Amino acid sequence: HLVESGGGLVQPGGSLRLSCLASGFKLDSYAIGWFRQAPGKEGDGLSCINGNTGSTVYADSVKGRFTTSRDIAKNMVYLEITNLQPEDTSAYYCARAKACSSEYKYDLWGQGTQVTVSS
What we know:
Layout: E1 2-5, E2 8-10, E3 16-22, E4 31-37, E5 44-49, E6 56-58, E7 66-71, E8 76-81, E9 90-97, E10 108-109, E11 113-117
Parallel strand pairs: 2-11
Antiparallel strand pairs: 1-3, 3-8, 4-5, 4-9, 5-6, 7-8, 9-10, 9-11
């Protein structure tokens, strides 16, 4: 399972750290990606952290504001977002794949956590 948490209402310019708790598998064996999808819009891939190396990749649109990290001991992956803007309002999801590559499909998804950016 994957369970996201940490979403909420935040003012523009604020920051949040989203968490993704993994159970049933080890983070050093799988990649974890972060995605978001707002109502009526296509989903966006945001970032990915590789299982074996911990290396990260980011979508160009989020570089500099989004940071993915993990705590292997806690089986937790994080997505920190800074300088939040109203257009960041979305449901955020984590998902599992064999590696951060388009060769591999994401086969396990969390239920999502809602982030709302508003004054």
